[in-house]
Write a structure and sequence with these properties.
The chain is of the alpha/beta class. It has 16 helices and 9 strands. A 7-stranded parallel beta sheet has the order 1-4-5-6-7-8-9. The protein has a two-stranded antiparallel ribbon with strand order 2-3. Helix 4 (83-97) packs parallel to helix 7 (154-167). It starts with 38 loop residues before the first helix and ends in a 5-residue tail after the last helix.
Length: 377
């Protein structure tokens, strides 16, 4: 369980982080010029385009009628693993809203499914495991599934390739769940508010916890790497539940596995965004595992996040999703305030402070994009 990360169809990563030589394919959008100077890539690189770039977490999803039509009769995980459908869903919000990036349509438990884990997404509940992982023996059985291979990742690489071919100069962002969040689902067996079982295992059997999170890290890293090699121009690591941890627990028991996951793309030269909810106390730790950009949820004003991060880290965020349903003057004032507060950071990509609620009026999202694009940096 402590062996070196596995990287299908690629050379092994170097250990020098973002100074590693780039090993992207020659026809990658970052190398052939399609997305090199796009607003999102520039902002992630601590640059300031003429207008702030904007995209939305969960922009490809339930708020769009075309999404619901495309997915009719098809399960969530099945939708993620049908390349043509996943590509179409990824492209829908780019066409409708004219956002500055597409986010690959997937789910954080897709790598688990690809690895043979008995997991599904229950409507109205979320990810549900056939059996939770609670003991060292459970972890050993899980680890026997081995790493993801080029063959198992083929639906992902095909979907990314199809999408990038249509996006042109608009970058595609890769997506994966952080090892702690994956481990939390595996241990709890279903969504949880406090992750008591996961936090108990973390302290009761640190060896089993380390083995579990290292396995999850290599799964996540392979998933991210496959997306980048297929054409993604940046990646975002979601640690949905990291906010439930103390800083000490995160740094001691979770940060090493997140760093291990990101080591899988360290030699590819793409920018990495790290996002979690309720993580004001973890912002520097989220950055220090190997991220270039820190996503900030709606609880922390961007000027305060910039101060906490020492004024040297590009930010992403952080419109409050609740205000998408507020009267337009209220939402407009809030969006302007978010852009103003993000102005002192080295770079700023406007986003939500969490995902798009399914009840959101799509026209409101389009209007937000239009507003952001009128605001100078």
């Amino acid at each position: 369980m402590t062996s070196a990360p596995q990287h299908p169809d690629s050379t092994s990563p170097c250990k020098g982080g973002h100074n590693c030589p780039v090993t992207l394919p020659a026809d990658h959008p970052l190398l052939d010029g399609r997305t090199t100077h796009s607003a999102v890539v520039r902002a992630f690189s601590a640059d300031r385009p003429d207008t702030p770039p904007v995209w939305f977490m969960r922009q490809a999803g339930r708020s769009l009628p075309e999404y619901r039509a495309a997915r009719e009769g098809v399960g969530m995980l099945e939708s993620c693993l049908l390349p043509e459908l996943a590509s179409e869903i990824t492209l829908q919000p780019v066409r409708r809203h004219r956002v500055d990036a597409g986010i690959f349509f997937s789910d954080i438990v897709v790598p688990l499914r690809l690895a043979g884990v008995d997991v599904d997404i229950a409507p109205g509940v979320g990810p549900v495991l056939g059996a939770p992982v609670r003991t060292a023996a459970d972890v050993d059985r899980l680890a026997a599934s081995g790493p993801l291979t080029a063959e198992t990742l083929a639906p992902i690489t095909r979907a990314v390739g199809l999408t990038v071919a249509q996006l042109g100069s608009t970058p595609l962002l890769g997506f994966a769940g952080a090892p702690f969040t994956l481990a939390a689902y595996l241990v709890e067996g279903r969504p949880s508010r406090d992750h008591l079982a996961a936090r108990t295992l973390m302290h009761a059997d640190p060896g089993a916890w380390r083995a579990l999170t290292e396995w999850a890290a290599d799964l996540t890293g392979s998933f991210l790497r496959a997306q980048v090699l297929a054409g993604a121009s940046a990646v975002q690591l979601f640690d949905s539940w990291a906010g439930s941890l103390s800083r000490t627990d995160y740094v001691t028991h979770c940060a090493p596995s997140s760093a291990r996951a990101l080591s899988h793309v360290a030699d590819l030269g793409v920018k990495v965004v790290h996002f979690g909810t309720g993580t004001e106390h973890l912002l520097t730790a989220l950055r220090d595992v190997g991220a270039d950009v820190v996503g900030v949820d709606y609880r922390t004003p961007l000027d305060e996040a910039n101060r906490l991060l020492g004024g040297r880290t590009p930010l992403q965020g952080n419109i409050d999703p609740a205000l998408l349903a507020a009267p337009w003057p209220v939402l407009e004032a809030h969006v302007r305030d978010v852009v103003r507060r993000g102005a002192d950071a080295p770079g700023h990509v406007v986003n939500l402070g969490h995902g798009v609620p399914p009840t959101t009026d799509p026209d409101v999202l389009t209007r937000v994009v239009e507003l952001v694009h009128t605001l100078g940096s």
